[in-house]
Write a structure and sequence with these properties.
The protein is an alpha/beta fold. Helix content is 36%, strand content 11%. α7 links the parallel β5 and β6.
């Protein structure tokens, strides 16, 4: 008979620290999330900031070389920064491998004429300023879904609610999923629940949330959570590699996002940033391999959701009036 303790997941440094009399307190089962993705599994993977077909090809090649499983690939510059041909190429390449493709919608405050976003406070941040900006996001959503994109990235609560209503009305395909950007991620259970009710199927939370914060959120919502295991510098530059197993235990169902610190920003992308974009795309996949290796070394790499799974499960929503 196999000793269960020999195969149970272990925490970083646990055997050596225990031998030195410095073992950590036992994990509290009450802190663990009881939720999973539909179809099984407690975690999925995402490679963000994949800004076009060429970067996508680099990600797919490197993922194959390093044997990194990918559930979702996301882009940050926006639908409007891609031609129809580029979107179609990305849709075809990800569909061939059963990977979800998520593209960002429309104009947002950091790129328009709003001076408040340049202040120390950040002003209105990533929100869509005015009717025209919302209209641009809707235009992007309709165009992208008509070209076969099934996941849309959103950074404004009004746009989120509008796209959810459009989905409910049949103006967008019923299986379109809406992902809330890390740039506006909620930091408490109440706001997390509000974004779920506004239509979010997947919600980015800031990478500086504590483990206790994740447990608090999971007590009110089962909506999939996205979290940078390594965050870009403009989101704090946090690196939480050694916490991955505990992030999954508390935050499941959880997308592990493989970001990259100490790298220049690339939004909005253009060919003038080609070499940097391709190099950072390749390194994000390598960062994913490092995180997966760490999980494997600790015996905590089980419960990955099946590749090709993308739907979020049942959600609580505000009522959409006719």
């Amino acid at each position: 008979m196999t000793d269960a303790s020999a195969t149970a997941p272990r925490r970083p440094g646990e055997p050596a620290l225990t031998a030195l009399g410095l073992s950590a307190p036992a994990l509290d089962p009450a802190d663990a999330s009881r939720h999973t993705f539909p179809g099984g599994g407690r975690w999925r993977t995402e490679v963000p900031s994949c800004e076009g077909p060429e970067a996508l090809a680099v990600v797919l090649k490197e993922a194959s070389r390093l044997d990194v499983p990918i559930h979702r690939i996301s882009q940050g510059s926006g639908v409007w920064m891609l031609t129809d041909a580029e979107i179609t190429e990305m849709v075809d390449a990800t569909a061939e491998r059963d990977i979800e493709l998520c593209l960002f919608t429309g104009p947002r405050g950091t790129w328009d004429i709003g001076g408040s976003t340049r202040t120390d406070s950040g002003g209105a941040g990533l929100r869509a300023r005015g009717h025209d900006a919302v209209a641009g996001c809707v235009e992007d959503a309709v165009r992208a879904t008509e070209l076969g994109v099934k996941c849309l990235l959103v950074a404004d609560e009004g746009v989120l609610w509008t796209l959810h209503r459009a989905r409910a009305a049949g103006l967008l395909p019923a299986d379109t999923t809406l992902k809330l950007s890390a740039l506006v991620g909620p930091v408490n259970p109440a706001s997390f629940a509000v974004y779920e009710r506004l239509g979010a199927d997947s919600i980015n939370v800031p990478s500086d949330l504590t483990l206790a914060h994740l447990t608090e959120i999971r007590r009110v919502s089962a909506t999939p959570m996205d979290m940078y295991i390594e965050a870009p510098d403009d989101l704090g530059g946090y690196v939480r590699m050694y916490e991955v197993a505990e992030l999954i235990r508390r935050g499941a169902p959880l997308y592990l996002k493989f970001g990259l610190a100490k790298a220049p920003g690339i939004y909005p992308y253009g060919h003038h940033m080609r070499e940097l974009t391709l190099a950072t795309a390749k390194e994000r996949v390598r960062r994913g391999r490092l995180a997966l290796d760490l999980l494997a070394r600790h015996g905590a790499d089980g419960d990955m959701a099946p590749l090709g799974s993308r739907l979020p499960g049942a959600q609580s929503r505000f009522e959409v009036s006719s």
